[in-house]
């Protein structure tokens, strides 16, 4: 979907700034945002809105149902009240979106409300590009939020971001196909398939006539794309490895390239080498019945359920040795540092966080509602519901956030480059992860380990 950047002058300036040299991106990560600036921008809400406030919102142009829902929410919000007028500008998602945000930050051209992928928050907060929103959040809403939403949005003890939905990751399976092949179907996280058992299952399905029984979404495993890190860091964690030292966040050496991480990614690579995995030419392997197991996220449920009504189940990811682990975190909202009226921005955010509005969005994109009250509106997450596993994983500690450190952009950049080399180019696992570690540790050294005091 093309982003209608021409709708506002601010959008046009953002597009122009997104084409600037890489030096601007470096400046966005490392410049500005010192303690004095943070002190001036710390208070976001004071309970007042003066006159009629104009609020510009940037939103990633994701799946069409998600975009269309947000567009209608903006229209409805503008219709039901007159004090705050919201204009939404959609930008290309994934790498173009992140580059535009960083370039706009460097030129002081960010909007009043910014939508961004969850783990990007820590870099934005550390550099002073967004400001805390603690003063805006009522206690009742804070308690209603899923713990994972609060965890994702918190940096250095302050809440900087809030999402209207969380994410889920699992294996989509065709129960009719598995039962015909005599394969047991896990009932929940406590009886997830082991990696060894899963390998046997894939071989059994291939023998039954499914040439490439597993779809790993390799079509999206490209350098700079988030899918590789979000989708497959859980395999590393499940094996006992990590992307970075989880205690100090000061080095990736011995963690990303440690024996546990190497073992997990070697298992995945072996599946590819055995031709058990869909080659990754399109994202339709499951729907077109070339694959009968899909390792993917919540966003595919609506399409899969429509294609195979009554014959889609979601089961946990394989256990690589330390228990099944899944990803969490998704796009969320933050308030850029600057002169925006925090109360006006919050008025719109509060609307999006109403249970019926959260439910409205989660129906559109298949995501997990961000609040307990919104979860209760959807039978999909009730006991026995089709997507019950996703909420159980978030509640029971199976879901794990990507590293909550300002170094995350460097981490995911390095991992997203290493993963396709390992899986598609069949590069040596240990040597490829060593290269990723060098890149991450170089970024850490360049930023003095990202001290809490900021740049």
What report would you give on this structure?
By secondary structure, this protein is an alpha/beta fold. The protein contains 19 helices and 16 strands. It has helices at residues 9-18, 22-30, 35-41, 64-80, 95-106, 121-126, 139-144, 147-152, 175-180, 195-207, 227-238, 259-273, 301-307, 342-352, 355-365, 372-375, 388-395, 408-423, 429-446, and strands at residues 53-61, 84-92, 113-117, 130-131, 154-155, 158-159, 161-162, 165-166, 169-173, 214-215, 293-297, 313-315, 326-327, 331-336, 368-369, 399-400. The strands form five sheets. Strands 1, 2, 3, 4, 7 and 14 form a six-stranded mixed beta sheet that branches. It has a four-stranded mixed beta sheet with strand order 10-11-9-12. Strands 5-6 form a two-stranded antiparallel sheet. Helix 1 (9-18) crosses helix 5. The protein is globular. The model is unreliable at 1-40 (pLDDT under 50).
A few lines on this structure:
The protein is an alpha/beta fold. It contains 19 helices and 16 strands. Helix 2 packs across helix 5 (95-106).
Question: What layout of secondary structure does this protein have?
Answer:
Blueprint: H1 9-18, H2 22-30, H3 35-41, E1 53-61, H4 64-80, E2 84-92, H5 95-106, E3 113-117, H6 121-126, E4 130-131, H7 139-144, H8 147-152, E5 154-155, E6 158-159, E7 161-162, E8 165-166, E9 169-173, H9 175-180, H10 195-207, E10 214-215, H11 227-238, H12 259-273, E11 293-297, H13 301-307, E12 313-315, E13 326-327, E14 331-336, H14 342-352, H15 355-365, E15 368-369, H16 372-375, H17 388-395, E16 399-400, H18 408-423, H19 429-446
Parallel strand pairs: 1-2, 1-3, 10-11, 13-16
Antiparallel strand pairs: 3-14, 4-14, 5-6, 7-14, 8-15, 9-11, 9-12
